[in-house]
Amino acid sequence: MTIRAYKGILPTLGKAVYVDESAVLVGDITLADDVSIWPLVAARGDVNIMRIGARTNIQDGCVLHLSRPSPGKPEGSALIIGEDVTVGHKVMLHGCTLGNRILIGMGAIVMDDVIVEDDVIIGAGSLVPPGKRLQGGYLYVGSPAKQARPLNEAEIAFLSESAANYVVLKDEYLAEA
């Protein structure tokens, strides 16, 4: 794995974290326990902070970044991801805040200052434009993403199951290392 400092700050990894050797993590990034970072993920915590919660998985080809402080927004936009989040292949997350138990479908883009509440599914290929708030308990799809329907009980249960499945998978990868 490639873990690099930026301005003297190295990423911090919790217990039982898996970072694929082809992934790149730079700067002020904190991974909580049982996080998995899969092949070809690029995550730069260079101009702000990035925090990824326990049991979250960032799948192949994702790009994670943030926004620097500016005169119009002195705090910039950090990237904060909660617990038990599944981030599908080739997702782009930029300076947004994700709650807990979220599934982001393949190829989705979530932009600056978006807030995603707990228990949300964002459909594959969706674009969540800057500043939007996604209410918990719903499926969002489209470009721009729109609330499609409430999640049913099985879908809500699946959000935690998906994260748990990736904890098992990353443990298998760690056992082979």
UniProtKB/TrEMBL annotation:
PANTHER family linked to this entry: DYNACTIN SUBUNIT P25 (PTHR13061), PROTEIN YRDA (PTHR13061:SF56)
Protein name: Gamma carbonic anhydrase family protein
Pfam families per record: Hexapep
Organism whose genome encodes this protein: Rheinheimera salexigens
Lineage summary: Bacteria, Pseudomonadati, Pseudomonadota, Gammaproteobacteria, Chromatiales
